[in-house]
């Protein structure tokens, strides 16, 4: 069943799964969304490389929980399966792990016609995707996302890469997956904290250009955490929104940058904690970043204070952080955060670009944002309690 309207898909009689197309011409692919997709997913992977090999790249946590079942399903579908494991957490998006994964794939004799399969959250997906983009100058890869964040965002759109001490995702490549399999059953083992972090990227789609979806989130956010119908709807709706933007602007020459709402602040905070997930994970950085983007927009007279307050209240209601003070430990000051932002990929000739908003669902790309305005805003955020 292929639908463009995820609501219709999840409301119909007996949908085993929904598919969302990513319309990218010769790089087009499908996102398959549902529960218990082992057999369906394995058949689709096998169809990409009949009788070939697949290297599962995963982290040790996800590997321990889910790799055997997926290996069995892939082998039953006729594939030779190898496995490469990395330590869990943002620290693995590093030069060292990138080199180790590439060498392990070569060691496993993964040929150009074979596949890399990223089984895990966004860390695994970004790293394995970049390794696939680089191995033998490019092999195809499949995203089999296991966190809410990766099912609603990172598995789609082909941004792959690793971090540098200078900033997030500064080394990487655009490399589209050939297939995405989002099995909601895998979310049953995800921690509440990681579930919440992924939810921040769901709310993002409402804040960018879909006020009605934000209102749906306000009404149904709690239900999303049950990994049932509401979650399936949120995943399909998010994927459809992202797929549409990516199809219009694959390489972020234009409005794909809207998907960066909250990320200029958020990425600076992730660098400030040296990618220590015990203090801040990506989705939490995005939640704080989106709350800051709305408060900054209100301060500049672009959005109303009511909308900024409403955004923060909804994020707080599900337990997400919204203030600089919510990050434990020292995160530097306004100047050091500004320094991190200078390495943002949206910077043009040294000028900062932010995603700001005229209201909920009315985000826009703001070029040449004044550093002095950002510095003064951050200094006030540090000084206040962010209320
Ligand atoms: N490429 C993109 O478009 C894009 C988009 C958004 C985020 N990202 C990147 O994604 C990363 C964050 O991804 P994430 O939030 O998925 O974090 P993650 O990959 O670190 O996973 C979070 C934690 O949950 C564990 N885990 C994963 N799946 C599990 C499961 N089913 N059961 C139990 N534990 C499980 C992992 O071992 C890890 O410890 C960041 O590096 C961010 O920059 C990329
Ligand atoms: O797919 C995109 O485009 C996004 O911006 C999605 C973001 O959620 C994601 O965190 C992305 O990795 C950030 O992109 P970057 O170019 O700022 O590294
Ligand atoms: Zn993100």
From TrEMBL:
Its cofactor is Zn(2+); Co(2+); NAD(+). One of its GO terms (molecular function) is metal ion binding. GO terms for biological process: amino acid biosynthetic process; aromatic amino acid family biosynthetic process; chorismate biosynthetic process. InterPro entries: Dehydroquinate_synthase, DHQ_synth_AroB, DHQ_synth_fam, DHQS/DOIS_N, DHQS_C. Binds 1 divalent metal cation per subunit. Can use either Co(2+) or Zn(2+). It is an enzyme of class 4 (lyase). It comes from the Bacteria. Keywords: Amino-acid biosynthesis, Aromatic amino acid biosynthesis, Cobalt, Cytoplasm, Lyase, Metal-binding, NAD, Nucleotide-binding, Zinc. Pfam families: DHQ_synthase (PF01761), DHQS_C (PF24621). CDD domains: DHQS (cd08195). GO terms for cellular component: cytoplasm. Pathway: Metabolic intermediate biosynthesis; chorismate biosynthesis; chorismate from D-erythrose 4-phosphate and phosphoenolpyruvate: step 2/7. NAD(+) binds at residues 122-126, 146-147, 159, 168. It is found in: Cytoplasm. Zn(2+) binds at residues 201, 263, 282. Residues 84-196 form the 3-dehydroquinate synthase N-terminal domain. Its EC number is 4.2.3.4. Residues 198-347 form the 3-dehydroquinate synthase C-terminal domain. Belongs to the sugar phosphate cyclases superfamily. Dehydroquinate synthase family. Catalyzes the conversion of 3-deoxy-D-arabino-heptulosonate 7-phosphate (DAHP) to dehydroquinate (DHQ). This is 3-dehydroquinate synthase. The lineage of its organism: Bacteria, Pseudomonadati, Pseudomonadota, Alphaproteobacteria, Hyphomicrobiales. The gene is aroB.
């Amino acid at each position: 069943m292929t639908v463009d309207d995820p609501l219709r898909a999840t409301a119909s009689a007996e949908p085993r799964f929904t598919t969302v197309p990513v319309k990218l011409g010769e790089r087009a692919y499908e996102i398959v969304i549902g529960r218990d997709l082992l057999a369906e997913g394995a058949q689709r992977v096998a169809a990409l490389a009949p009788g070939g090999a697949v290297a599962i790249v995963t982290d040790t946590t996800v590997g321990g929980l889910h790799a055997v079942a997926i290996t069995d399903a892939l082998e039953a579908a006729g594939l030779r399966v190898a496995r490469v494991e990395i330590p869990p957490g943002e620290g693995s998006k590093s030069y060292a792990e990138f080199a180790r994964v590439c060498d392990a794939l070569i060691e496993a004799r993964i040929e150009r016609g074979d596949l890399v399969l990223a089984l895990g959250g966004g860390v695994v997906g970004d790293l394995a995707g970049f390794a696939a983009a680089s191995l033998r100058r490019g092999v195809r890869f499949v995203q089999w996302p296991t966190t809410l964040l990766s099912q609603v965002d990172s598995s789609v759109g082909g941004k792959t890469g690793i971090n540098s001490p200078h900033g997030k995702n500064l080394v990487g490549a655009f490399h589209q997956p050939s297939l995405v399999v989002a099995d909601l059953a895998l979310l049953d083992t995800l921690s509440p904290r990681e579930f919440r972090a992924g939810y921040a990227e769901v709310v993002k789609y409402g804040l960018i250009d879909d006020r009605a979806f934000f209102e749906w989130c306000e009404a149904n956010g709690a239900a999303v955490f049950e990994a049932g119908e509401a979650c399936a709807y949120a995943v399909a709706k998010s994927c459809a929104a992202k797929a549409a933007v990516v199809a219009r602007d694959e390489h972020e020459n234009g409005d794909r940058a809207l998907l960066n709402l909250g990320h200029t602040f958020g990425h600076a905070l992730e660098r400030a904690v040296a990618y220590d997930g015990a203090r801040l994970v990506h989705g939490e950085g995005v939640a704080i970043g989106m709350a800051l983007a709305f408060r900054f927009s209100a301060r500049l007279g672009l959005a109303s204070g009511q909308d900024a307050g409403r955004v923060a209240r909804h994020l707080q209601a599900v337990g997400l952080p919204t203030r600089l003070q919510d990050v434990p430990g020292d995160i530097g000051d306004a100047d050091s955060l500004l320094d991190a932002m200078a390495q943002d990929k949206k910077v043009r000739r040294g000028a900062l670009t932010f995603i700001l908003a005229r209201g909920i669902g009315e985000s826009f790309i703001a070029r040449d944002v004044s550093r002095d305005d950002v510095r003064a805003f951050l200094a006030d955020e540090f000084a206040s309690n962010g209320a």
